[in-house]
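Researcher: Last one for today. Full complex below.
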Amino acid sequence: MLEIKNLHVSIQGAEILKGINLSVKTGEVHAIMGPNGSGKSTLAQVLAGNPAYTVTKGDVLYEGKKLLDWQPEVRAREGIFLAFQYPVGIPGVGNAYFLRAALNEARKHRGLEELDAMEFLEVLKDKMKIVEMDSSFTSRPVNEGFSGGEKKRNEILQMAILEPKLAVLDETDSGLDIDALKIVANGVNKLRSPERSMIVVTHYQRLLNYIIPDFVHVLVGGQIVKSGDKELAFHLEEKGYDWVKEGPELTRK
Amino acid sequence: MTTTVKENKQTYVKAFEDLRSGVFSDDPRWLLTLREEAIAQFAERGFPTQRLEDWKYTSVDPILKNSYRLWERGMSHGLTLEKLTPFLFEESHWNRLVFVNGCYDASLSRVENFPEGVRMKSFDELLLADDPLLHEDTVRKTSTGKHAFTALNAAFLEDGYFFCIPQGVEIKDPVHFLFVTDSKEESVLSHPRNFVIAEAGSRASIIESYVSRKGTSYFNNTVTEFRLNPGAHIHYYKVQNESEQAFHIATTNVRQERDSYFSSFMFSVGGALSRQELNVELLDTGAECVLDGLYLAKDDQHVDHHTLIDHQKPHGTSNELYKGILNGRATAVFNGKVHVHQDAQQTDAHQMNKNLMLSDQAVVDTKPQLDIYANDVKCTHGAAIGQLEDLEIFYLKSRGIDEVMAKSLLTYGFASELIGRVKVQALKERFNQWLWQWMGETPLLHLL
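Model: Here's the assembly. Have a good evening.
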């Protein structure tokens, strides 16, 4: 469902991704790990269409179509979801209103009827159980005055409502204590399905104890230097990133 | 008789002399004295130029280029209550005084079921009846002000509203003073002068709005004077939604006695050129004021807000937050001064001005000032000018929301902090509606 081919990406003239190749099939969960500055967040942002990044070379096919030609909002309506590392607050706009607006954009795009406030509330109530949120979240402004953990839960709630085909989770574990991490990871696991692919970007192996990936890729210096199954994550935890840093050309898949 | 003024101070002085020997000659002695003193001050000062520090960023030349027909009692108009609906509130039982082209119209107004002693009248009505309220110091010693426009207002003053709330009386529903300009051919110049006297312990919410039914050019030069006696509690909402070609110069003076509370909300969206001065004197201990402002300007609009908070005695509190949203080639000025006298120990004063620039051509000049002469005070001030963040826009787009709506939602978010503080629900909704319309969107209400 997703084919990344020789992807090169720059920001303000500096090349961050230097030829990424990655293939994700429907229903698979891929973890992207790497040290700070390796380009893993860049990859997540580029898939969602952040205009701050420039693709200089390469291609991304999503369900056989050229993903890079689409505006971010089109990608979202086509089923791509990015859970942000730092979700943005929107004062004055209630969470429920925002989520309904987002869902209805996707529904319109797919030729489905829009949900009215009452219908949406039913959907929302159901989905909120996934991330153990109480009803006070619905009337609070989006991410305003939310704790770090609440913001991350809210991202997963959005994912639950938008039901993406491809979910990209950018450092969803950062800044979470162990209880919050469990709730978020549980939520993600409940949303795993044979129809939904996921790319989980993380610095630490910790998150992968809860969200067990099918594949693990190690990103160093803008290239995938090693790929393997979930065992690779344990090796990394034990030996550190220095272990894979030598000879990227040899280990590249 | 039609009196027309244009361009320089001589035409205004000449127009005054004509009226002095005409309609003004019937005025009581005290009013004539006030007028004569005011026109003398005006003649001496002339119109402000940009060489004056207070007018550095606002040129009044566009106002003076126009010629105006001066206010005249009984000028006819074709307005009906139905045509006013967009400017009134669903709660039509709210009491209101309606002024058309500066002139009070009793048939469009409504004054019913007030607690005993409440006076809500037009200045002209009081004058005709030689009402004892006119003997109040607030009226007799009304200020001719600091500049040409306040002096002109006193010299030419003909009408305006008078609102007096007796001791201990609380008025639950807001009262509305609506100034509609509906001139067809000629530009009208009117000089409303309004008075609010809140006796000790009284409470009320006041809406003063300036609107137009047609996109014509005219000039409103207004003065509103507040006196808050000890413990009085006033919420004041000033709506400037004039025609896009209109000029609006307004001065609001507030005198607060011990433990009184005054809040104001200046909502400014219309006018080719508008300037609103708000001067608040905290005359005695424990007085508190909250000054909020939201100004929206686009195209070639110019909007200027000057505020002065004068802390004269101890234990005063002031909180000021003005926000501006600018698009097109609009220009805005914010000048906020907080003066803390040596006597005003334990003052708590906070002032902030924030501006959101939606275009590269818009300009804002902002100047928050603190003058502190006391040594035991808590004061902060600041100003910010920013744009919508690309990352914020991207966040919304990544949820399937298109760019135009993403920007509108974030712009709304910037303003919502202020609009959320409006205590009158119907007014809050109206402000939201105007904000969305200003952004070119179908109004989205109830977003929370």
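The longest strand of chain A covers residues 14-24. The two ends of chain A are 19 Å apart (CA to CA).
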